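Batch job 17 of 40 flagged for manual review because the log was empty.
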Amino acid sequence: MADGSVLHASSGPVHVLRYLGEVRYPMAPSLARFVDELLQQASIPAFVIDLSAVETIDSTNLGLLARLANRLRERGGPRATIIVDGGELPEVLQTMAFDEVFDIVRESPPQAETVPTPEPVEIDEYLDRQAVGQTVLEAHRNLMAMSEHNREVFEEVVAAFERQDAAND
């Protein structure tokens, strides 16, 4: 499974986002908009993030998960649960302080009927590239804010994105 995708299912206030395959930055803007729409509901939704079928997930998409945790905390919502299934990902999440803002479980959830989220926007116009750049920058800022370790790891990356963003203005 090379191409990545994210599937969505819900039952009442609980939303499940299942990440599959190689989840990379080009899908981040559409995924961020989708999650923002879910968070605008009158009731505070609960989230289960299933990463058990992820082959690769980049730092931009991890930053979007950090953003989700921050938004839930700001609204007084419950902590989201991340499901992982072995490999290196549980260690990566712990190193990046995800265990401080998410409940992390090492098992697969029961299979639910899922509906795909909107397809990622094709990155072929200047505005689309700009949206991706802004999403990548914000995602990495969210990662930096999670812990001192993350600040040290991503400080230079964020500074480079900020320089590039300033040069594009």
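Reviewer: the log was empty due to a logging misconfiguration, but the result itself is present. The first helix runs from residue 28 to 39. Unflagging and moving on to job 18.
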